[in-house]
Amino acid sequence: RTPIWLDVDTGHDDAFAILLAAHHPKIQLLGISTVYGNASLTKTTYNTRAILKAIGKEDVPVYAGTAKPFCREAAHAPDIHGESGLDGTTCLPTPTVPVRTNKTALEAMYEALIATPKGTAWVVPTGALTNAGLLFATHPDLVSHVAGVSAMGGAIGSGFTDAPMGTVVGEGERFGNITPYAEFNVYVDPESAKSIISNKALAAKTTLVTLDLTHRFLATGEVQKGMLHGFDSSADSNGKEPSQVRKLFIEILTFFAKTYADIFGITDGPPVHDPLAVVAAFAPALFSDEGGERYEVDVVTDGAHGAQAVAMKSQCGRTIATPVLPGEGGVRIPKRLDDEAVWRMLDECLRAAEKF
Ligand code: BDR
Ligand code: CA
């Protein structure tokens, strides 16, 4: 099994990353740290514990990490995830196991990761990269110890000939989501993202799952039907009531679908970004390009940030990617995935969660 430490800002798509990491039989989930992002740290930590309760995995240790970037104010995404970070979920249970306080999140991450055999464990951030950046800055010995970092973050646009978000930023075009240039997780703390990507040894073992890929992984109506009843089940036709946990994950997709339709005009179904970073860590063969091409990536850290960013056409948080040849370093950016296989994998994990 692949050891994974998951670092989340639990909103709607992070919940699927937790489901996959906690229930896939080929993953050993070492623990979860939380970070501000979709909502405040207090809310994302609560949401993480509640999702673990819903899927019968409250034994996974949860540590609260950082509440803000170290040189910026925290930004949140209530327009996409609601005020709670996980709005629209009437089936969300109240967590019963408290967050761990016996050590800090960074200590817990380091101790769990350094205890794994060298070259096996992955750090998988699906929120702002603040915890991950601090981890490798505080414990540089981890860089050579881990198998890698697989982060959901960034948007590169160019290099994707049929990129759904557009390849050129001009009037009315965009490849980011928080601004026309920048993806949310990188935008909220670009310095932390840069600290990872500009560390050549760490970049060489980093995968970035960017919007260009995640916008190919849409929870369409057909997918939602499969997730509600089970992909190979005829339960919908014989009227069997779906389980609470399936109802919860459908509530999550329903809310997410509405905000993506309202804010971005994406009506085919919401892109479920975060579980793809887990997939890239333990099952890269599901990306038809065997895990992706390599790019030298620079993160723009200057320019307006906050309310004025869009009006001022700020490029802060943009990830500028230049292709590099194999053996010349850079980060891995997957471009193609077997989306049906990933949905089936998530369906299997829901089936496992239903047993609890
Ligand atoms: C990323 O931002 C968050 O809103 C999502 O959870 C995802 O990690 C997408 O840009
Ligand atoms: Ca996230």
Automatic annotation (TrEMBL):
Its EC number is 3.2.2.3. Residues 4-343 form the Inosine/uridine-preferring nucleoside hydrolase domain. One of its GO terms (cellular component) is cytosol. GO terms for molecular function: purine nucleosidase activity; uridine nucleosidase activity. Belongs to the IUNH family. Keywords: Glycosidase, Hydrolase. CDD domains: nuc_hydro_IU_UC_XIUA. The keyword Hydrolase applies. PANTHER family: INOSINE-URIDINE PREFERRING NUCLEOSIDE HYDROLASE, URIDINE NUCLEOSIDASE. GO terms for biological process: purine nucleoside catabolic process. InterPro entries: Inosine/uridine_hydrolase_dom, IUNH, Ribo_hydro-like. This is Uridine nucleosidase 1.
